[in-house]
Amino acid sequence: MALPDSVTTCLSQPVHYAICKLGFEKRDTYDINNILSGDGEVCWQAVTEHVCYLESDQSVDYIRSIRLLGPVCESVNSYFKSLTKEQFVVQYASWFHWTNCTEVFLEVFDVLQYTEATGVALGLMKLTTSLERALGDVYLLKDNDCPFLLRDLLASEQLADVFGQPVMNVLRVFIGSPHGLNLRNVLWHGFASPQEIPAKYCAMLLFLTAGLGQLLQTYLLQTKDVLVHRPYVIFVSLEELDAFPDLNNEILSIAEELVKLSSFVLKIMLPFWIAALTAFKQSRYADSVILLLPQLEVGLRMLFTTTNKCPNRLLTAESSALYTTFDEMLAKHLDNEEVNQLPLVLEEPAMESDFLWDFLNHQEGPRIRDRLSHGEINLETFPREIANQIVGFAITILCRFSDEDMFSLKDHMVIRPLMNCASRYRSRFHPISRLKKQVLECMKNIQLWPELATVPEEEVEKIKGLEGNAEANTLILMISEIVSQLQHYMPQNCCSSDDPINGVLTERLLVELCDTRVCTLYSPRPVLEVVAVLRKISAQCHQVSQQVIAGAGLRHTQWVNRTLRSRQRHNYRRMLNSIKFLSPVLRLILLLITLELVSVHSVCKKNPFDYQQYLKFLKSVLQYTENLVTYTSPEKNKWDETMELTKKTLMKIRKISDRKLMLMDLAM
């Protein structure tokens, strides 16, 4: 990727002017005592007087407001620098308690004492995300549905009712409005370099946050309301995120060299990269990821704008247009419906896009960027495991976009395992991937059935008035016929033709089929519709399995203890009879699901028959499994009805399988 080092800013001219110059035009010295009372409280009326409004519609005049607030911000910054840490803690720490993360704001004060550009930018990113989360908690005092976007949150009537509209307008000058400084967005989306964020704006937001705490305390005393903080997101099953090996200092040292030489890194952003790697070494994992995610975005944006021949979109968009963000860069088409060229020029397009979709976008994934930037994660306990994956991915990107004369670094023995992991990466949180996981988990559960404690057959046969196994055997024969039809489309090393059920419907077969690589990138809507239904079917099958295991265990205990009444004994016999065919039925359904996954993209593309008709069939199978959940529940125990319903469904499956087999022949 040949990109010029001559890029000196990623801020468009109007945005650069607003952030870097506008607030410095008035050189008046502002007296801090005008906005600070003797006991250290913020005089909000004096602050809000600096916000100007347009005569036309009385909306905020952001240009004039930024200009007037510039000297106020400078005064606040100087005031904070005059305080010792102890003085600041005594005077202000209690006013940050409403945010539920006082330490973050005390840390920002420390950063302001040294005015190191990268530290200020990081501090501002952490401040805005923590402030947004806290404001959301306040919003929930008035309403149940908190807006997702900071812009909508700050413009809400609910917060205006608590803090007052003039106060909210002050905040919107700094964050949340694309017409103002919009500091949160230009940093979190990677547009601003460290040198472009004035420290005085960070100081002002720290000051305003304390002032909001003072206003909120008064409001809560008046209303007797209690502010409740939403719990942080807790990441579970971290092993699912394990894509790259653990990063040691040797790898990180090589990464520091790659950063300086890789064409993926803009020179003006280099301090962010170095700070991110340093933070990881120091076990500051949240800081590392907060610094790194915007840099991955700006690096990919460079590549995106180059390959799609829209260099102007490297810069921040104006307030009337959208930023070029991860969502658009990872999309299949541009907003003008042309094909996005970015995936086509990546060396491993599926890997890079799949990883980013997994970690940032997929709803069932960790959604790291959203949750970090909106304050949903406890920064103090951010998992090393996640940071390790983000940094590992970043290192592979640096390697891919490095000059050939850096071969010695890229092929270093400690870097090679990272590259190998990258090339083998498969999506873990796409709906197709989640479906595969569901199927295998369900199969493991069904495999517990043979271990269920049961009553000896000779004792069961003593119960009079019950039919034999003929009906169950008929169903098992139907299942065998369907499986035999499908065997041609299965890996032969996983099947035994001697026993179509126990020799074919096995976990080994499902593992083999689920291991087949299925394209998850840019899945068309018909595919996602089918997958959604298949996931529901799989979930219902799993619930049936769990209910059978629980019910059989309970009934066996009651049988042994001789606490079953006559009717219950008859029902238990029906349950045992039903288990004989239910296990093969559920395993057959799981097999059909996995076979569908293997061919689903080709099926949708060729579309040899009415796909909606097949979707209708799948929904009928879903209805069957939902009914099974009801019939096999402890409250119902309708085993005769289960048998009759299964027979009808197997006839449908056998009928549709003939057409499906022709379809799969065409798709292969």
From TrEMBL:
Pfam family, one: DUF4209
Residue span, DUF4209 domain: 131-211
PANTHER family: ENDOPLASMIC RETICULUM MEMBRANE-ASSOCIATED RNA DEGRADATION PROTEIN (PTHR31701)
Protein name: EMARD protein
Species assigned in the record: Chloropsis hardwickii
